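ingest -> fold -> write
write: protein_1
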Amino acid sequence: MLRRVFIAATIVVAAAVTGCNGGSTNPPAFPTGTLVTPSPTPIPVHLYVANDSASGAVVQYSLPITGASTQNFSIATEASLVTVAVDATGNMAVGNINANLQFFNAPLSAASAPAATFANGGGSNTGQITFSAAGDMFVGTTGNSVKVFTHPFSNASTPSLSITNAAFVSTIGTALDAAANLYVSNPGTGTALTCSSGAGSCSDLLVFAPPYTGAPIVTPNVASTAYRKIAVSATQLIASQVAGATGRVDVYSADHCGERAGLRHYERRKHARGRGARRGRQLVCREPFQRDRYDLRSAVLSG
């Protein structure tokens, strides 16, 4: 919505001097003024929080969040949500533990109802939903694939692409960067030989370049770690971790580490900086970093 802009024009009217034929020898000057170019009204930025209880629902909050913040409204959804995402135009998608997906058209309100409801491509659960710049959905399955759904969505929507890889154990987190590279968090990995905490208790990350059919970059396993949702910016990837009694957030930094692009994993260490290590297609550089800890929820920022 554009704000109305009133253009002030100063009209200069010369004093009328009667000519010989009764006309004016000095006609009125043309109106003059300053043209003000309107600026678009900023799109409101909101936080959307999904409810993983039996009642379901997504609540919207305005930013910035303060101790006095209250929800703007609640949108009714299916029960037991585990992911929520908002695309660039304000449309919203949610997924639950039964591998059901719902899509809501913008503008969102308490009266919003799903425009489409469909299954997550035969999966038994739902990982993280991520929208591409074009409005297509990339969805983890907590299995051995990531499903891609092409818009427009309907109750009959089925995957247009299934991204698979032999390294997949449980695809949960998904994220896309500005170049459309796909990042996937993959918990449940590891063996007694490759992860110090034993089989099934480690996590890694996979990075696929479009069109997602080639071999990915795979980061080394991180012990005693169960990655869930992830987010990516131009310089960092942030992964939530839920293993153990206390949750954790791990931060990876984009890095070239020689001739091949990869991810630099920042993790807590006592003293000296570790060296960059390359193992086949695996690439990581380790440096000390104090991991922050948060209570983790399914939430997404939009704007």
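write: protein_2
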Amino acid sequence: MTLRYGLLPVAAICFVAMFLAPRDGAAQMVDFGNVQLPYWKDSTYTFTNTLPAPVDIIKTRIKKIGGDFIIITGAAPFTIPSNGTHVMTIRFLPSNYGLYTDSMYVEGVFPGSPIQVGLRGTGVTWPVEMQSFTARRVDGRVELRWVTAQETNNVGFEVQRKTAEDIDFAVAGFVPGSGSTRARREYAFTDPFDVPAVAVSYRLRQIDADGRFEFSPVVTMEADASPASRFDFTAGPNPASDRATFRYLLREDARVRLTLIDASGRTIAVLHEGEAVSGSHALSARLDDLPRGAYVVTLQAGRESVSRALILR
């Protein structure tokens, strides 16, 4: 069970096939990993001809006809020159959740023909896709708001609170979920606890129908609500791998825009844009479809902006 945030990944994985039959007969493998329903993932398979003469590929086929793996581009027939390469694109489109396996056969005029390439991937569903989670002080109390894009077997959200004086989070309340839905849902919760003028943090414990659970990002209301800076902004973890969470604290309502910029200064993606109320916000995005390297994340609130470096590994 996993909470998913933000953007859909479409990863590209590169594998190299040598035209030599494995001595132990073991098949090569393309592993697509987890793919969220109802989406797909594409991978490129690169054939490398290490022979001193051109190689003719006569046939490429997937064992299961009409299955969940499809050759998109680069299917046979084709010829690979000596020391040349040929790229084929394979798509994994799971029809349901669970593990899928199949085989691709490559037949041609070369030693060891045909080559068998194993295909493997897992279709997964995400119980809750959360778009945002915010907190702000209203008349001495803290008001929480969050938005989900879709839910699957979601019993609800246990709201948990932790002040600067507490050792761990404690239950502040519970908000029922919407079961299973593809529609956008908005939730709100006002903490009945009179929050003192200290830093206080909140998180959601999302609970599935089978009892499994996952925690949301933490949002924090700072003790000092009137510093000189108009807003605070952090991005992490840093370095990040497949997902990053962006947290910002607004001192007043503003229109915000969160952008990702590469090392050349080109805007790669607008991660979020819209009106935001004063208070603490947390947004997450999946980034595993991006090349590894250095990026800059810029948050603009009204006429002001602040940037943070983000490394993807």
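write: annotation protein_2
The mean pLDDT is 79.
Residues 229-313 form a domain with the Immunoglobulin-like fold (CATH 2.60.40.2550).
pipeline exit 0
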